[in-house]
Amino acid sequence: MSTTYLEAIRQGLWEEMERDPNVFLLGEDIGVYGGAFKVTAGFFEHFGEKRVVDTPISEAAIIGASIGAGLMGLRPVAEMQFADFISCGFDQIVNFAAKCRYRWGASVPMVVRAPSGGGIHGGPYHSQNPEMWFVRTPGLKVVAPATAYDAKGLIKSAIRDNDPVIYFEHKGLYRRIKEDLPAGDYTVPIGQAKVVREGRDLSIITYGAMVWVALDAADTLAEEGASVEVVDLRTLLPLDRETVCASVKKTAKALLLHEDTRTGGMAGELAASISESVFEYLDAPILRVTAPDTPVPYSPPLEDAFLPNAQKVIEKARWLVRY
Amino acid sequence: MSAIRALGPFPGDRAGGEAELAHTCLYYMALMRELEDRIERKLYRQGKIVGGVYVGRGQEAIPVGTALVAGEDDVLLPAHRDMAAFLIRGIPARRILAQYMGRVDGPTHGREGNMHMGDMKLKLVSIISALAATVPVAAGCALALRYQGKSGVAFSYFGDGATSRGDWHEGVNFASVQKLPVVFICNNNQYAYSTPLSAQMACANVADRGPAYNMPAEIVDGNDVFAVHEATVRAAAHARAGLGPYLLECKTFRMTGHSAHDAAHYVPTGMFDEWGKLDPITRCEARMLEKGWASADEFEPLRAAVRQEVDDAVAWAEKSPYPDPATLLDDVYERRE
Questions:
Q1: Closest approach of chain B CAs to the CA of A74, in angstroms?
Q2: Is residue B222 part of a domain?
Q3: Each residue of A110-126: pLDDT tens digit?
Q4: Partner-chain contact A69 B143, CB within 8 Å
């Protein structure tokens, strides 16, 4: 039976809660109501109020309390209703959770789930991709699954990890994609990118919902005779530079794609890493397709213009293939 | 030797416990005073402390009176003027000195300075520099204690300034809504760096914030170690009974600048003299004499023993090496073999 991205997250959470009594959930409207996106629907009825904690609207308290519980040996999974609101608990994440092990040798097993991304006409406060706020914070792990398989495997790995993990789940993928998942328990290791489409002429390196944009573009480009490789980062921190550089070494051309805005985005770090490691293999400049440096607009024509799409990727890719 | 093991959780409850408790309180207050005097007035000026110094001179009764109530299941989240809480919980003076000097034998092995240390084996959580941020963390520790079916309480320490922060209110509110076992311990020393209370909050007392959270809040003479201890026993019993958090506002005065580089010229003339008369160590000694728990000739030998203990600790810490720069990249993440 095919499983949606949202159902895959649910399954991962459910199975981990069944497996380990130290795993519990906390967040706004996640219990009785089942969560704004219904990711945790049915959990409260099954696991009870002790393990599914409805909190006040207090992101700093949700994340701070998760850290405290994690220090005490529990494995909290905090839900941010929207990734955009994670800024309200930012200090707890970057100044405390991220630094506990290095500062004083304390483990903070904790997952913060952050529903992110645009394309749902959510406007400036319900559409952002704030992953880079965290990617430049040593001590955190940051994952951003693109597939149902990875969504389930990575939520399990995140819960079992003894370091704090920010788990970006793309709202636009929740019910849009599905696939058959293995029956038994499996995990996807944190820190490993994956080549999701093999190719010879060009590497598109991306993550999250943009993996699907890259694959769409690759299909069209294949019809034109261009063989495109697509690398899904899956984990943004620690970054799997080896897989990225190996792909670029093979294809000699890199197109970096993300839904996040341009300046200070992941593409810049990838470009620097590629340049440092495999510059002599490059046959063309490294190009980027990203959102522009603006807030995420609400109205459909504006948001469509803001978001990267297959057409924008195809145009840059054609130029690179011809170069 | 760990003081927790040495004393047991409730020294005041034992037969003849009052006199013994008084001696214990006096010892830890004297040790904290001597240790911090040495750090601020000698080692810092000699350039041996590599970073900032923030002491709790005049506030010793608060960490001593509270931390001595904590048992093994209880979790402490001390702030930067609560040196005695670390000592009572079992971090020896020599390792604290090594920490201040940036040496490898400090509890954080040179990764952190001054009071920024902790050890979950001692149920001692490291402070967050933006102090109010520890309040939600304390709530989470308390949530975990209840989740694990333990009778422990979280002791959450902060100053008056922290209560202006949003995460202080978020943490207190969450603890109240969830009826979590937390004792909130405010050292109201009337200044947050140079900002006086009148510029910090519009209410007269930090305790006035309690009713908004349906939380009992008590004003305590923060310079009377016995009053602090008694109030903490009351507060911890309330929290332990599942009745929710309890706020202790310990009124005191910071008998120093914010830090070793701050001469505190902004403090009105006379305040140091006025509060100096309420010194918690002097008052503790007076009470002990009055109650017949000690004789006057016992105090000088105690002070001499404490000076010797700190001398030895300084010598030990100075022998500790600096950390190896090759360890710079270690422990950002859990080590996996």
A1: 7
A2: yes
A3: 999 999 999 999 999 99
A4: yes
Asked if residues A232 and A206 have their Cβ atoms less than 8 Å apart, the reply is yes
Known catalytic residues of A are: 126
Size of interface A-B (CB pairs under 8 A): 139
User: Does B333 contact A58 at a Cβ distance shorter than 8 Å?
Assistant: no
CATH number of B92's domain: 3.40.50.970
Query: In A, what residues contact B, Cβ < 8 A?
Result: 24, 50, 53, 55-56, 58, 60-74, 76, 91-92, 95-96, 100-107, 138-139, 141, 161-163, 238
Exposed / middle / buried, residue A103 (Cβ in 10 Å: 0-12, 13-18, 19+): buried
Residue A168 above 60 pLDDT?
yes
Average pLDDT in chain B = 94
| pLDDT for residue B8 is more than 60 | no
Instruction: Name the pLDDT band for B7 (thresholds 50, 70, 90).
Output: very low
A306 pLDDT more than 70: yes
Which of chain B's residues have a Cβ under 8 Å away from the Cβ of A162? 334
The predicted pLDDT at position B203 comes to: 95
Q: How many domains would you assign to chain B?
A: 1
Helix axes B299-319, B93-100, angle to 10 degrees: 50
Give a yes or no: residue B336 inside a domain.
no
* C-alpha distance from A160 to closest chain B C-alpha (Å): 12
pLDDT computed for residue B337 by the predictor: 65
Which helix (H) or strand (E) element contains residue A25? strand A23-27
Q: Predicted confidence band at B12 (pLDDT cuts at 50, 70, 90)?
A: very low
Cα torsion through B67, B169, B192, B98, rounded to 10:
40
Closest CB to B111 among A76, A102, A162: A102
Which of 175-194 (B) contact A at CB < 8 A?
A: 177-178
Distance, first Cα to last Cα, chain A: 44
Q: How far apart are CA A91 and CA A100, in angstroms?
A: 13
Which chain B residues touch A106 with a CB distance below 8 Å? 118, 120, 125-126
Q: Distance (Å, rounded) from C-alpha B285 to C-alpha B301?
A: 13
Instruction: State residue B11's pLDDT score.
Output: 43
Contact assignment for A65 to B129 by CB distance below 8 Å: no
Q: Find the mean pLDDT for residues A180-191.
A: 97
Mean pLDDT of the B11-16 span: 46
According to DSSP, the residues that pair with B183 across neighbouring strands are: B155, B246
Beta bridge partners, A54, equal: A27
| Structural domains for chain A | 2-180 (3.40.50.970), 194-322 (3.40.50.920)
Q: How confident is the model at residue A86 (pLDDT cuts 50, 70, 90)?
A: very high
Please answer yes or no on whether A104 and B130 come within 8 Å at the CB atom.
Answer: no
Residue B68 sits at the vertex; the CA angle it makes with B230 and B219, to the nearest 5 degrees, is 35
Q: Whole domain around residue B88: which residue ranges?
A: 3-320
pLDDT at position A212 over 50:
yes
Domain membership of residue B28 (yes or no) is yes
Q: Phi, psi at residue A192, to the nearest 5°?
A: -125, 120
Q: Is residue B77 part of a domain?
A: yes
User: Which position has the token pair 């921190």?
Assistant: A237
pLDDT at B3: 39
Q: Which of B91, B174, B327 to mutate to test the interface with A (most CBs of A within 10 A)?
A: B174
What part of B 138-157 touches A (C-beta under 8 Å)? 138-145, 147-148, 154
